[in-house]
Amino acid sequence: MDQAKVRMERTVPVHDQADLIVVGGGPAGCAAAISGARSGLKVILLEHSGQLGGMGTLGNVSIFMGVGNVTGIYREIIAEVLPDRLPDSHEGSIWPQYSPFVLRHYLNSKLEKEGVRVYYHASFTSAVMDGDTVTGIVANTREGLRAFLGAKVIDCTGDARVAQDAGVPIHSGREGDGLTQPMTLMFMMQNTGKPVTPYLPEDAYYYESMSELPQGRHLYWEQNQDGTLLVNMTRVRGNGAKLEDINHAEKEALRQVFSVAHYLQRNGFETYVLSHIPGQVGVRETNQIEGRYTLTEDDLTSGRRFEDVVAQTNYEIDIHSPDGAKTTDERSLSGYDIPYRCMLPTGVKGLLVAGRSISATHVAMSSMRVQATCYALGQAAGAAAACALEEGVDFPGISIPKLHRRLADQGVVFWKAESVKQV
Ligand SMILES: Cc1cc2nc3c(=O)[nH]c(=O)nc-3n(C[C@H](O)[C@H](O)[C@H](O)COP(=O)(O)OP(=O)(O)OC[C@H]3O[C@@H](n4cnc5c(N)ncnc54)[C@H](O)[C@@H]3O)c2cc1C
Q: Pfam families, alphabetically (predicted)?
């Protein structure tokens, strides 16, 4: 049976215009906005929530996984927020835990200093199209629907929301069954220094042993000096871009948070209390665009290099089982390039997609999805927008050597850079 539909036609006031509209203020979006602004563009950043940093702050994913290339804006963030953790060379790998509250405040100030106009509580609703070219977006704001027009648009929503609405083909999850990685609500506990009474709500679970835990393992970090424990031990099946899945996940993940905290309070963390539960469940994987190039498992395992490299990483293949098993498929990698073409959506002009929803297979995205890589992709996307406007071409037509020059001017260093041509 066909789904019932309503037709919506509205005339919407244009609230603001810029050279570049960035949608989504996570790692990719923040870096895209900064990079665009540093290239001389007037930039607007629209963020659905009240904070920047994406999953890192909103979902309390407050640890950067190592990628083997601490460079560009990501390096700057480490230098300014976690100076003690900055490696001497770009080729270092660091795995620092950070305060999501500090990063949230830092990004507000950083974007303000860079001259980016940030609109909080502005949720992408639809793409404004001129034929097959994206010329802006309509957002649901605190004043109702408003349009924001831009010469170029970058989709950093993590879910490829802009691309999908503009008509770019999308795929999700594993080849075959389309299942995505599960969701996790990460939380914090704080050492009080004295025994506490474990608390378990009525409808929560009593976990007797490690094997009964949602991931069947312990996964937490206690790197911050103040006795903060960061816990990644809940797990809920589903695709975070689907209404029914996210509805279930928000309730189930919170139930698991109380249950895991209660387990930890009985198993080694007798002096710890729950101290922070973020406002939304963490979503690992939803939509991937169909781009000019699709990153594959073979690219990762063979350590492939590309002439149009825009980000480099050696983070492992890291797949939390999508089908309800308590396992995680982890396979180390020696390092690979992500090409610019993975951010170029097919069939639509005026739009780039940066961050975890680039064109990649389920296995490839499990590695490229981490925050440092998303910062790198965003930085390249912002610079690419400036190249396109300067050269008077659309995104696919830009000069890659000029893009690399611009990124180098912004402090980006590619290691094993034999494929990068100098201009
Ligand atoms: C549970 C979990 C654990 C993880 N562990 C780690 C880890 O240990 N280390 C690590 O480095 N990475 C980890 N990751 C991966 C990493 O956090 C994400 O893949 C990364 O943040 C993706 O960056 P992004 O910018 O593409 O998207 P996101 O971080 O998802 O940011 C997208 C932004 O767009 C906004 N947005 C969405 N829709 C709209 C809309 N319609 N309108 C306007 N704005 C919108 C969102 O509010 C958000 O701010 C983990 C992820 C999860 C979920």
A: FAD_oxidored
